[in-house]
Every structure is written in C-alpha cells, then in structure tokens.
Amino acid sequence: MRGLMQDWPLVVHKIIDHAALYHKGAKIVSRSVEGSLHRTGYEEIRVRARKLSAALARRGVKRGDRVATLAWNTWRHLECWYGIAGMGAVYHTLNPRLFPDQIAWIVNDGGAKVLMFDACFAPLVEQIAPKLRHVECYIVLSAAGDLPKMKLPKKPIAYEAAIAAAREREWDRFDENQACGLCYTSGTTGNPKGVLYSHRSNVLHALITAVGPAVLARPSDVMLPVVPMFHANAWGAPFMMPMTGTSLVLPGPRLDPPSIYALMESEGVTLAAGVPTVWLGLLRYLEENGLKLTTLKKVLIGGAAAPLAMIETFEDRYGIEVIHSWGMTEMSPVGTMCVPKPPLDTLPPAERHALQMKQGTPVFGVEMKITDDSGRERPRDGASVGRLKIRGPAIVKAYFKGAGKSAFDKEGWFDTGDVASIDAHGYMTITDRSKDVIKSGGEWISSVLIETLAMGHPSVAEAAVIGVAHPRWNERPLLIVARKPGCGCGAAELLDFLSGKIAKWWRPDAVVFVDEIPHSATGKILKTELRRRFADFRLPA
Q1: Which of 185, 270, 336, 361 is catalytic?
Q2: 391 forms bridges with which residues in the sheet?
Q3: What is the DSSP letter of 141?
Q4: What is the DSSP string of 54-116?
Q5: What is the pLDDT confidence band of residue 437, given thresholds at 50, 70 and 90?
Q6: Which of 71, 174, 217, 348 is 20 to 30 Å apart from 28, CA to CA?
Q7: Which of 79, 160, 176, 330 is catalytic?
C-alpha cells in the first residue's frame, strides 16, 4: 500500500521561491569584486535569477547543459546558481586557485557550454579560453561599463546587460533527480573527479544541516560563509540560508582578516563558516590589534582538523561557540557536527574542549562505519581505527563519467579515504587520510592529532606531520612547523611541549622549521608537496 501524499518534487528553485515570499526581511550584503558593498534581498534575487534563465535560454542553454561559474561569493553568483538550476541546467563551479591547465581540464571534462566569470578572472579566462572545447558563450559578471578588455573566441557579454534585456522566465518542471550542480574534487593525487549533485540531494542536504545537532541558523541570524561557493557547495549555505530565512553576508574576493573582521562587525554577523587557516589568521589579527568580535555567536570549522588552541581561544577568550564539522565534496558536503550532547553536555571545560576536537556525530541521513582493509566492521570503542565508509541520500553513488569506481562497494558504501575511530557515543575522530597515515613498526600514528597539539604552542602558527623513512621502524613522524612572526622557539621546546600529551613512541623524531606550509587549492595542508620536499630527509641517529 502506498501513501496518499502529494508528489511535490524537491527542487532547489522552490527554496528561493519560499524565501522570496516569506523571508522578505532578510538581507543579502555582498562585497563586490570592485570593492563596494551591494545590498539586496531574496525577492530580488529570485526575479533576477528568472531573468538569467531567460537570458541563458536565448543563448541556447537547454536542460542538462553545464554552465560553468568562476566567481567569488557575491549576489550575482547566488543568482547564477538559482537561474541555472531553475531551468534544469547544471551549475558547474570552478576553483580559481587551481592551476590554469587543471581548470581547463575540468571545464572540458564537465562539458560546459557557457562560462560565467568575475571580471577579476579575465586574465585567467583569456589564458585558458583557447583550450576550452565546448564553451560557446562567455558572460562576465559585471555591468556593461565594467566589462574588461580581453581577447576571447567569442565576444564576452556583460551579465547586467543580459539581465536587463530579459523578462522573467517561469521555472522549468522536471524530476527532483535532475542534475543540479557539478563540483570537482581537489585532485591532489591525480585528475580531479566530478561530483554531480541532484536537486533532491541539494534540498535534502539543506534540510538535514538546518536541523542538525548544531541548529545552525534562524531568521534572526546573519551568516557569513567565508568558505567559497566553488568549494563543495559553500557547505550548503546558498540553499540552507534562504530556506531558514537567514540573512547572508558574502565576502567577495577579500578574504583577508581585516576585511572579514570589518564585514562581521559592520553587518552584525552571528554565524560564520570557514577552514582553520581562515580562523587562524582572524584570531592572530584580533590578538595583534586588541580587537573583539561583538556579534559573532557561532563559528563553523571544517575542511581540516580544528586545533585545540583555536577552540579554546574562540570559546574562552571571545565567548564564541565552536562547531567542529567534517564533510567532503562527495557528501554535498556536511557529514558530521561536533556538539556536546547528553550525557556529555555537562563535562568540565577542559574535557568539553577535548571532545570538540572530534569531528562529531553524523547528521541525520548519513550512515557511517569503520572497517579493516578486508571490509570487516571495527568496534565503536573510540580506540579501534579503520577505513571510514559512508552512505546516504546526499552522498555520491558514482563519480561523473565513471571515475574512481574502486571507492564504492556493492552495498553502496563510499570509502572516504579517511582513517578514523568512532566512540561508544557515536563521535567520530579522523586520525588521518589513508594516504597520509604513518605506520611505525606496524602501528599507526595519527599525524592529525600531533598537528593539532603542536599548534597549541604559543609560538606555532601552523604545523604539519609526515612520515619519513627509518631503517628500523619503516617510518617515523617528522614535525614541520611555521612559527609566528618574531617567535624563536626551538625543536627541543616543541618536543617537550608534546611530552605527556601523546604516547612516547608517537613523539616526532625531529622538528623542521619552514617559512610557510604549502596548502591545496581548498586550503588543506598539501602533504604531497611536503613529502616530495623532504623525500631525502634523514632522521638523526
């Protein structure tokens, strides 16, 4: 027997429809590429998105076509997502931090028919345009008067001119499983792989994260997603915030600490999301200038492990709640949130902060387990570690064009490539990426834990741990440190700082100081580069 409920497709343009009708008081403030602040609301975003659908249809875009976007977080980029998806086409985000040849490869692999880009990326687009095989139309996200001079195979069109010449177009009708967005993984160990989101998965992800254990946003909140829209759906913010009626503050290209701080204070931001490197920079800026965050209440940290010192500083010094999160492009992307829940919500501060270093418990809709290399499930005892596997309605079941088939098993589980433990309360802790794990004398050492503890030293700006060859133990941990300006701590001081916090045999055999630690295009520590750089490093006898 089937239920007798209406068939109401879960499509993303229903989100902006809802926001336009019922959240007219919400504000969208953007830092434009030109530098000025732009103010709008969900009602106007909807109107302009529907005009964009008409403008794209006039230029031959059809259902299923990919429309690439190379843009920062602005109101125009938000309009692009809804305008593209609302006509049944697919927004295809491009990461400008990748190498030009890699961006061109992604555009070609995705088969984008149109490329929409911020004017500041004109030199980059001019460089890759001769290599783009499918692009028929170039649209610059600017007014006609700000159109840059550039040489392209086709004359570029100003976004505002295209919008002004179009009438609102009704949204298309299609199944909720229609493709909606295409985002590529960072590809640090090979060609990037495409993750093709559906309308259904994006709507479910927004619902799931909105009602997750952190209860992220309400209509009275103001959210600043520092995480860019070209990085894993901006963690779902462009869909979740209109759904919940939360105001949005979009930082544009200016992600430096002074600019982020100024926006937070001037616009009354209560919730912000970003990777640890962003928050390390902001905290350093606050400390150096004796500043406070007067409106911020919650900060969502993901993309890499949050150091204990960062959690303590936000909560103890500034009174800001830290929500440690974990996810992947393949998960739309949020998978877990770390919030102390009964019976752990009454822990003393030191124990609560230790708990918050874990990646957290799965949000509803994410199944999770750890297994050994043979696929046997390992105990949820907080001590056993294994390969982290997941499945759920907003998790990839296959990569675009069939790449990476070995990551999926017959039961639908996706192997994340992470090594983790899960405790009796369901809190998951990432101990390493499987390719980064250090195996010393047959035992696993967590580089992630050593890094987060080392960053608790007041002189350490950032730390990374890799395994280097050892004649007896196969490999041993090497601690690589970038010191804060003006700090001169030595190796012995850092190793003493770690003593008592980790097992003796986990203690790094050596410390190397560098000016800067390399990062991937998504802000993660680039351990492939560190392993290459220190391939010939010899540990002291």
Answers
A1: 185
A2: 367
A3: S
A4: HHHHHTT--TT-EEEEE--BSHHHHHHHHHHHHTT-EEEE--TTS-HHHHHHHHHHHT-SEEE
A5: confident
A6: 174
A7: 330
Token pair 């992470």: residue: 418
Residue 502 has pLDDT above 70, yes or no: yes
| Cα separation, 532 vs 354, whole angstroms | 33
The pLDDT value recorded for residue 190 is: 66
Q: Residue 309: is its pLDDT beyond 60? A: yes
345-370: per-residue pLDDT in tens? Answer: 999 999 999 999 999 999 999 999 99
Q: Report which residue type is found at 43.
A: E
Out of 62, 401, 435, 439, the active site residue is 439
Would you call 534 helix, strand, or coil by DSSP? coil
Task: Show Cβ contacts of residue 104 under 8 Å, excluding neighbours closer than 6 positions.
Answer: 128, 131, 132
Any idea which residue has 């990551």 for tokens? 407
Q: 392-416: per-residue pLDDT in tens?
A: 999 999 999 988 888 999 999 999 9
8 Å CB contact between 277 and 307: no
Cβ-Cβ contacts under 8 Å for 402 (sequence gap 6 or more):
none
∠ CA 107-125-121, rounded to 5°: 115
Which amino acid belongs to residue 216? L
Which distant-in-sequence residues (6+ apart) come within 8 Å of 41 by Cβ? 24, 26, 27, 28
Residue position matching structure tokens 């133990």: 473
Tokens of 305: 């492990």
* Tens digit of each residue's pLDDT (9 = 90 or more) over 116-129: 999 999 999 999 99
Confidence check: pLDDT of 441 > 90: no
- In the residue annotation, 185 being an active-site residue is answered as yes
Looking at residue 202, its pLDDT comes to: 98
Residue 303, helix vs strand vs coil: coil
Please state, as a whole number, how many other Cβ atoms lie within 10 Å of the Cβ of residue 379.
13
- 222-225: strand order across its sheet: 37-40, 28-31, 247-250, 222-225, 271-274, 298-301, 321-327, 334-338, 361-362
Catalytic residue among 277, 341, 444, 473: 444
Helices (H), 315-467: 318, 349-356, 447-454
The answer to whether 75 touches 27, Cβ cutoff 8 Å, is: no
Whether 439 is catalytic: yes
**pLDDT tens digits for range 504-534:** 888 999 999 999 999 877 777 888 899 889 9
**Nearest of 177, 191, 232 to residue 397 by alpha carbon:** 177
Residue 110 has pLDDT above 80, yes or no: yes
Positive or negative torsion for Cα 526, 532, 535, 537: negative
